[in-house]
Structures are given as C-alpha cells and as structure tokens.
Amino acid sequence: MVSLRGNMKKEKGFTLIELLIVVAIVGVLAAVAIPVYNGYTQRARRADAKTALEQLRASQEVFRAENGVYTANFALLNSSWGGPPATVGNYNITLVSNGTTTFTGTATPTGSQASDGWLSIDQIGTKNSQFPDKWTK
Q1: Does residue 12 form part of some domain?
Q2: Which of 28, 72, 87, 132 would bridge with 97, disulfide CB 3.0–4.6 Å?
C-alpha cells in the first residue's frame, strides 16, 4: 500500500467562502456601529451648544447686574462680559433682546449637525428645543 500523504502539499490561505463570511460579519457590525457612533458625536456637539447658551445667559445676568438691563449687543457680551463666540462647533449662536427685560439665545445647528434642531434659552432659564428632550439628552 502506497501512502499519498507524503506527496500532498499542505495549502495555506483562506477560501473564498471564508473571506465572504468575514466581509459579511464586518458589514453587519459596521451597519450597527456607525449609527451609534453618529448619535454619540451628535450629542457631544449638542453639549457644546448647551454650554454656550448657558454661558450666554450667565453673561447677560452679569451685564444686567451691572447695568440694570439686558443687552442685544452679542459682540459686547463676548468681548467684555464672558459671553460665548458667535459660532460654537457646529452651531451658530444668536441673541434677540428687547434691551430691557427679556432676551432669547438660540443655537442653530449647521453642517452635519443640521438635522439636530435648534436649542434656545431665555432670561428666566426656560429651555426650548425644536425637537422634544434635546436639552435632557
């Protein structure tokens, strides 16, 4: 009896089926991981806007304590009273004030954050958003 074992070469490498299975697994993992990652980054950028709006409110309160009124001058708040810059991350910060008793600061998303919706805060700390619960998430 002749053994064929000695004459056979041991082949190294992957078969096409094995490669297709690995590609399919990677595809499924990516399909789950990418939206989750995008959600985390969107919430992180939203946190920047929330911080900027709180900073805007605090600087308005300092200004009011010194001058007796709120200001509509965003540049003045930014340069002299510790207000936020007009652009924070992927948000544009705007200020509307009647100059005496009320103001509203709004963070409007831009670019990749545009689907997130605006956030706003007013002189008594009322927080609003385009979509429910954006201030709590």
Answers
A1: no
A2: 72
Q: Is 124 among the domain residues?
A: yes
The pLDDT of residue 19:
92
Q: Is the overall model pTM greater than 0.90, yes or no?
A: no
**Token pair of 20, please?**
């297709």
Q: What region does 76 belong to: left with phi over 0, alpha with psi -120 to 50, or beta?
A: alpha
User: What DSSP designation does 74 have?
Assistant: H
At position 19, the amino acid (one-letter code) is L
Contacts of 55 (CB under 8 A, 6+ apart): 82, 83, 84
Asked if residues 95 and 31 have their Cβ atoms less than 8 Å apart, the reply is: no
Q: How much is the pLDDT for 38? A: 87
Q: Which residue positions in the chain have pLDDT lower than 70?
A: 1-9
Q: How many CA atoms lie within 13 A of 71 on its CB side?
A: 20
When divided into structural domains, the chain yields a total of 1
- Domain range spanning residue 118? 18-129
Burial state string for 119-132 with b = 16 or more CB within 10 A and e = fewer than 16: bbbbbeeeeebeee
Structure tokens at 79: 């340069």
